[in-house]
Amino acid sequence: AREGPRYRPRQVRPPRGRGSSVEVYFYGGQVTSWKNNFGEQQLFVSRKASFKPPKAIRGGIQICFPQLGNHGVLEQHGFARNRLWSVDESPPFLDTTFDCHIDLILKQSEEDLKIWPHSYELRLQVALSPTGDLILISRIKNNNADCKPFQFSFAYHTSFSVSDISEVRVDGLDTLDYLDNLRSKMRCNEQGDAVVFESEVDSLYLSAPRKIVTIDHEKKRTLVLRKKELPDVVVWNPWDKKAKVMPDFGAEEYNCMLCVGAACIEKPITLRPGEEWQGRQEISSVPSSYSSGQ
Ligand code: TA6
């Protein structure tokens, strides 16, 4: 049966015919397409992705809240990516300088109260800048009437489309400590080391600087990720073995995707009633003449 409009994507295009565009699903509050000003697709979504419950959409930018991974009592990556969001009708609470944006809100549900007994407000603004950059701003507020604080982790689990994963390099993560989830141990990236990909990678870089640069040689393209209030960076590629066992992921698709996203995991955020937090991730896609030193 045709899914209702709630499970169909919303296209967002800037005025004056700029080439950029963004597509968002209310399911998961998830960006599933971002085209830069040249009209080039920057994000990866698996051809085997499901766009309705119970699986989160495989790819795009998953909103992981209130936890990342399964280091907590909730389902993997929390519940926000598995819920139906709605259009946020209240006045844009965030950056109103953008002439192209969509504002979503995830409303508290009775079922969720049972698994996460806190009253919260999670609002997301997805915007395109005049130069075609993609900006995501999330605002989380503690609305607990019982004066209880709550703690959460958060990630923009961002899957980029790349030409050939073995041709991709991530700069800006050198000298950082990182949690290697494959070996469940802390490691350290040496000075000047770019992150390159020859096998499965599942890492959480801690307290990364504000700018992360992903360089895709074949596409002659550089993605620059900037972030605020999101100190950590998740980096993930399942490689061939994992790819084969994920039902919503094509066996060969590990070659053409890379997840690099801003997160706040190592030190979860605590909000007291009435307090709020804003986490911002901005990505620009520039021709690869750009050097990461800039
Ligand atoms: O990137 C962090 C991570 O937790 C990886 O360990 C891997 O599990 C990935 O997210 C995908 O998780 P998912 O629940 O979407 O299959």
From TrEMBL:
<keyword id="KW-0413">Isomerase</keyword>
<protein>
    <recommendedName>
        <fullName>glucose-6-phosphate 1-epimerase</fullName>
        <ecNumber>5.1.3.15</ecNumber>
    </recommendedName>
</protein>
<dbReference type="GO" id="GO:0005975">
    <property type="term" value="P:carbohydrate metabolic process"/>
</dbReference>
<comment type="similarity">
    <text>Belongs to the glucose-6-phosphate 1-epimerase family.</text>
</comment>
<dbReference type="GO" id="GO:0030246">
    <property type="term" value="F:carbohydrate binding"/>
</dbReference>
<feature type="compositionally biased region" description="Basic residues">
    <location>
        <begin position="7"/>
        <end position="16"/>
    </location>
</feature>
<dbReference type="GO" id="GO:0005737">
    <property type="term" value="C:cytoplasm"/>
</dbReference>
<dbReference type="GO" id="GO:0047938">
    <property type="term" value="F:glucose-6-phosphate 1-epimerase activity"/>
</dbReference>
